[in-house]
Design a protein that fits this description.
With 314 residues, the chain is of the alpha/beta class. It is 31% helix and 26% strand. It has nine helices and 14 strands. Strands 10-9-8-11-12-13-14 form a seven-stranded mixed beta sheet, with helices on both faces. The chain has a five-stranded parallel beta sheet with strand order 1-4-5-6-7, sandwiched between helices. β11, α6 (224-235) and β12 (242-249) form a beta-alpha-beta unit. It binds ribose-5-phosphate. Ribose-5-phosphate binds next to β11 and α6.
Amino acid sequence: MSFSLFTGTSNPALARSVALALGVPLGRAEVSRFPDGELRVELHETVRGHDIYLVQPTSPPAEEHLFALLLLADACRRAGAASLTAVIPYFGYARQDRRAQGRQPIAARLVADLLATAGFGRVVALDLHSRAMEGVFSMPLEHISAISPLVEAVRKELPENAVIVASDLGATKLAELWARHLDLPAALVHKKRMSGDVVHVRDITGDVAGRAPVLVDDMISTGGTLVAAAKCLLEAGARPEIIVAATHGLLVGEAVERLAQLPLKRLIVTDTVVVPEAAAARLPLTVVSIAPLLAECIRRLHDGESLNELLSWG
Ligand code: R5P
């Protein structure tokens, strides 16, 4: 059976790289707007009988990118596609996977239901905010991990006497995995989020004095978590040569300015989302491409091979 790869507008460069790595052309589809602002989607080639992979991170503006993905799926389904897989390298709304307080929605569950309604039968996502996210999907979720390419990028920069640091409790398992890969000790910063972009750090567990910290996290949004963690590490005597490694470099709002104040040796993110231009200009940035990983995942899914070593079990 044939398979085809399509994308929307959230990260066409990544989709093109995935297509190149797979040796297939990117399907021709158009995402535009009607004069009243509504999204308009049209496929410009046949998909009848094809297994379709739609590559579209639902990065900010998440509603726009999510809705385009849903419309593309609906167009493929109505045009006779045999199966639909959503490849969502960055999954917007994943942080809302539970109700922190009453009278709140579980947005991640709603997004999963919308994907199912649009016709997707499977989702591929990368380094989701939590493992518990799997529970919001009724369809199969292939949760793959970018830790291998990120670890290799960090290994090239690693100073003597480094320590892996989880920037919050949620990143503890991730930090343990990093520590095993690099054979380093791990430490944990205890954080309390006061609001969307204000974060307080209480304490550090682990020995960081005289060590070069490698801060790991799934994502950087406003940079609040990292800045608070870095300050706390420096106060605790960590060396001012900080490496940060995170899968999703959203870098929204004041993130670039905030991070530019830190003694960063290197900031390593992947290309799941388009990193703002200012980040490359102002920060010691390395962007690791996850296109080969996504291509390998799609190839194995299509050929019915095991994904085991690509999956995130951390
Ligand atoms: C939260 O638990 C995540 O792992 C990240 O630490 C957080 O989402 C990053 O957001 P910000 O950069 O806005 O602090």
